[in-house]
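Fig. S4 source data, part A: sequence.
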Amino acid sequence: MSIWESLLGRKPIGVFDNFFDLGGHSLLAARLFTQIGKLSGKNLPLSMLFHAPTIHGLAAVLREEGVEPSWSSLVPIKPGGTRSPFYCVHAAGGNVIGYQNLASRLDADQPVYGLQARGLDGNKVPLERVEEMAALYVQEIRALQPRGPYDLGGACTGGIVAYEMARQLVAQGEEVGVLAMFDTFAHGALRSLPRSELRRFRLESSLARLTYHVTNLIGEPGRIQYIKKKLRTLARRFNTRLWGLKRRVYYRLHRPLPPVLQRVEKLNMLAIKRYEPGLYPGKITLFPPSTRSVGEFPDPKQGWGKLALGGVEIHHVSGNHLTMLQEPFVGVVAEQLTECLRCSREKRSMAGENHADRL
């Protein structure tokens, strides 16, 4: 109980109080489960909070000696409702806890399921290719929902995996309704640019980043915090490069990766970098935030224009890359996504009625 009170900054907290109702979010959930793991020695996935969002519920899970929680990539975030589910794919970190706010803001009759990365339980080896991830997730959603149309989405890199899922579903003869991407840039799109345009972008991007860094270094307020943040970023980048080097050595020696190198986030990022997206016959629905990252390529279609043969529909929302799915900005995303899902259902209904009339 003291861990919850310390992390959430509230006292008292009862054993039946809901983590999310108390203001809990993905970052707090990660810190909570890290401390639980240190105290109990059990590595529970963050998605367990959907099943047991109270102190009483988590305590019951931890008391189950010798019983490992059942593992599935498919996570019921909000399973109730009569409509076809909306499936949210994890971003680089592999967890789907960050979709809780979005799910709670959608209509009560709208089921929401998450797709978390394999390997978060510390037992199974994470997948290393986007195509493999998509195939596994398609298999799991089809076990729940055998026939389409399927409504999919993902934030950041999760949108890329959702894109490949949509391609595989279409190849299997299934229909995809809404393919939503929450600030997802098509990795590899820059490689297809003409050399002159690519050089101009890199120059403009470098100047924008240089201006940003100099402004923060010269400005007195927050200068020290900015320097500390950048040092932490450099340390993470160095660690990632070192991790990648070790991984290549193990692969060349044809040896399995040790557990310390089976880190979901790093393998996910490597998978995204290797992925070459093919054409998709349907439409993509983009949700770019109003605040853009420094030096970001200024393409309103975020690189998907040449890939989505059905076009790219853009819905501008509030916040930035990290906050758009958090309160208070997530309300705008939920409102626009709800409208997209409604329009998709109506379009399918009208198509079905026209088909019946022709018969």
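Fig. S4 source data, part B ends here. The chain has a mean pLDDT of 82.
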